[in-house]
Amino acid sequence: MERCCGLVTRSHKPVPLKAISVEVQVKSFVVDVASTLLYKNEEENPVEAVFVFPIEEGCTVYSFEAMVDGKKIVAEIQERQQARDTYDDAISSGEEAFLLEEDESSSDIFTCSIGNLPPNQEAAVSISFVKELLIEADGALRFVLPAVLNPRYTPQDAEKPSVTSHIPYVPKGEIPYNLKLSAQIQHPSGISRVQSNCSLTPLQYLKEDKTSAQVSLSEEQKFDKDVELLIYYNEVNKPSIILEAGVQTASAVAGTLMGDPIAMLNFYPKFPEKLTQSTCGEFIFLVDRSGSMADSSSNQLEGPTRIDSAKETLLLLLKSLPVGCYFNIYGFGSHFESFFPESVEYTQENMENALEKVKSMDADFGGTEILNPLKDIYSKACRPEQPRQLFVFTDGEVGNTKQVIEEVRKNASSHRCFSFGIGEGASTALIKGIAKAASGTYEFITEDERMQPKALRSLKCALQPTVKGISLNWQLPAGLQAVQLSKTPVAMFKGQRSILYAQLKGKLDEKSKAVATLEYTFMEQVIQNKLVFSLQPEEDSRLTVHHLAAKVMIDDLEDSSQSDSEDEKKKIIELSMQAGVISSHTSFIAVNKDLNQPVQGPLMRRDIPLSRISGVAFGHQPRMMMCYAAAPNIVSFRSVAQSYRLDDDDSEVGCDFLVGAAEIELEEKAPEILPVFKLISLQKVDGSWNLDAKLASVIGLTEQEIKNKMPSKNFDNVLWATILAVIWLHAFGAEYKDEWELLVGKAVVWIKVRAGPSPGDVVKAGNELLKTSVEQQEIGL
């Protein structure tokens, strides 16, 4: 049987992990997940089962327990080395032990070790974690349960190899364990629908006002791919708050983090549809060219490779840059190189030169060493009046994640960083970490999603006016104080939400109300989001909000410049143990000391296999159909914002679709290029189009027919061609508006300068020629 490149063949011995069951609880913009892993030792000797698995960056694990022979064994938090010593002592004494720890180099990898599992015995291990959810462009909340963990490349000077280098990998479909998943969702504005890349049961509402619902995977499945849920609320922009009651125990008393109520505020501001965009900036694109970028970016081996997807996106970004900016492109792997010694002005000649170089890019640079190119970029002086914007495209398979994030953080004052994780298995810790460190945004492109709309969304963010003066103010009854636990964001972009946490200290009158106000300045206008809420806290045994608040506080300590000091380490350990959440300095440890007798026999180590997307792919696959859970009795649903990954019959676009004036010939047997991208490829740097045979061919006319229908005899050929191109894109390329919106905006600015304040007659003539009915206002004229 053919196996994917780089995967380990299946062992003929039984694997202890038999099944995974997951319960998901979504509250507004956060999720609480409880995963149960069922192990069974079917061998004749006791085994040590080791399962290295991915959890999305930003998650915090707050519970780890095991059920053995009907007895629950609850783990406790200990300092990392102490937990390891406890585990080693237990298994050497013949006791059952359970250890859960975060990888030292990357916060999105965990190792679960089960020591001394006796022959023929089952053990159910439960892991619970919480995280904040990502919001998509169309307002959907995105929850991903990662299944795929790609081996992380470790730089040559690293002290030890990545923990992922020892994991056995098997081809997709041969994972020897199944997955069950159910989800409960709550939001005060009501739940509209839920979509997934897996088959779901119909969405079942638990309340008449549709503020609570549940959904499940329709059947058990092999856990060989990420499971994704897209959750849509009726009013996602409406501010909301959850006030969670604390607990009263010996260690959690009034005045402590776990003893006091914690408020979680969710703000997702609405921005104007039309925003004035910056026409300056230095745009640097850093593209992963390591060997792993030759892997398929989709679940199908025949789909486009990761490097192809990055090239397609890069070409479109080059076409969309504003006139007057500067740019450069870096490729990195075991070494790195840049297109230009330093950033160059965005001219027609420089763009054509860059497009020529982009076409020749391949995944041929060996390993994944991103630190050195970052240092080279930061060593170059920034240009006055040209704010630096860094775009990073990578599959995120690096072993020195924390070093890379720290390098970006050190230089955060001189730039913003926008990151893109390509393919399943991309390190969420790296992709989210570098964006967060430099006040940018991040995107993940998995399965058969189109990267272009997400990349253009980030470019729009980079060109947006800056939100300034963000502050959070409280109006509380006398005797009550709000202590903010999370930092107020430095910057906010269109399409971003902000979650803030505060501890309420003092006397709480549950019959009273309070007011929280988020205030910021946007385009010289002061905007306020006010939220009036009851001071009666909700009881939640899972303490979701408290655990998230503790995670935010620990992250701030770990991100500080003093994080390596003994004082900061002590603070992290104390907070981790007080809140019961894992950190980089602590681990969960549980020991079953109630065995009738020590486990006898030689201890066998068994690594649990994971799925990995791998292998070089050729050609392009149709996009995968997203399954959905709609309201009962609704048969089908198609999301406009998700249309790129929903349509089975759309043609995929090859990596040569934007060659422009460079006239790079397409390779033999290349997929048919859609007319919309042929037209985009002809646009010049200033936003205009030439009137020539190529333009005429795309819009289905001859060059002479276009000239014969010009508004006047001596009318400007280039102006006429540009107006026709803009009308054509609105009329026939509306499906790809997210991808051409910026470059058409550039064209409209150019038209206004050339045509004057009243181009209406020209638009009318263009509609008559193209037999369309695009309104002048729709174009922006």
Secondary structure layout plus pairing:
Elements: E1 17-27, E2 30-40, E3 47-54, E4 60-68, E5 71-74, E6 76-79, H1 80-92, E7 96-102, E8 109-117, E9 122-132, E10 134-135, E11 141-145, E12 169-170, E13 178-186, E14 191-196, E15 204-205, E16 212-216, E17 221-222, E18 227-233, E19 240-244, E20 262-267, E21 282-288, H2 306-320, E22 326-332, E23 336-338, E24 344-345, H3 348-359, H4 371-379, E25 388-394, H5 401-410, E26 415-422, H6 428-437, E27 442-445, H7 451-463, E28 468-475, E29 480-484, E30 498-506, E31 513-522, E32 525-534, H8 544-559, H9 566-579, E33 586-592, E34 604-607, E35 610-611, E36 627-629, H10 643-646, H11 675-681, H12 693-698, H13 703-708, H14 717-732, H15 737-755, H16 760-770, H17 776-779
Parallel strand pairs: 1-13, 3-34, 12-35, 21-22, 21-25, 25-26, 26-27
Antiparallel strand pairs: 1-2, 2-9, 3-8, 4-5, 4-9, 6-33, 7-8, 7-33, 10-11, 11-18, 13-16, 13-17, 14-18, 14-36, 15-16, 19-20, 20-30, 22-23, 22-24, 28-31, 29-30, 31-32
Q: How many strands? A: 36
Q: Strand count, sense and closure of the main sheet?
A: 9 strands, mixed
Low-confidence stretches: 1-15, 149-155, 161-171, 596-671
Q: Number of helical segments?
A: 17
What is the CA-CA span between the terminal residues? 60 Å
How would you state the average pLDDT, rounded? 80
CATH architectural arrangement of the domain at 17-235 and 580-611: Sandwich
Note the beta-strand portion: 25-35%
Provide the CATH topology of the domain at 17-235 and 580-611: Immunoglobulin-like
What is the CATH class designation of the domain at 17-235 and 580-611? Mainly Beta
The SS-based structural class is: alpha+beta
Helix amount: 10-25%
Radius of gyration: 28 Å
Shape: globular
